[in-house]
Write a structure and sequence with these properties.
It is a single chain. The chain contains two helices and no strands.
């Protein structure tokens, strides 16, 4: 963002939670992942890689379409 002097470009963000009520957002963002957060990321790595591949091949719209379809498949398997 600094080098481009803009934030107007597509980004892929992976979220694992948020700061506690008394925790500063900057401290939270810059801190190391907890063990459970790392496990969550490791479990989701294949899906994250799929999303990145979809983004490279087809752009943002293709990636979002893929994400939506996969989310619908996963939520329909939950009972």
């Amino acid at each position: 963002i600094y080098q481009l002097e803009s934030d107007q470009f597509p980004r892929i963000r992976v979220g694992v939670g948020g700061p506690s009520e008394n925790e500063d957002l900057a401290d939270y963002v810059l801190s190391n992942f907890s063990k459970s957060e790392m496990e969550n990321i490791e479990n989701k790595a294949p899906f994250i890689i799929d999303l990145i591949e979809q983004f490279i091949v087809g752009g943002t719209a293709e990636m979002l379409d893929y994400y939506s379809k996969q989310s619908n498949i996963n939520s329909s398997n939950i009972s």
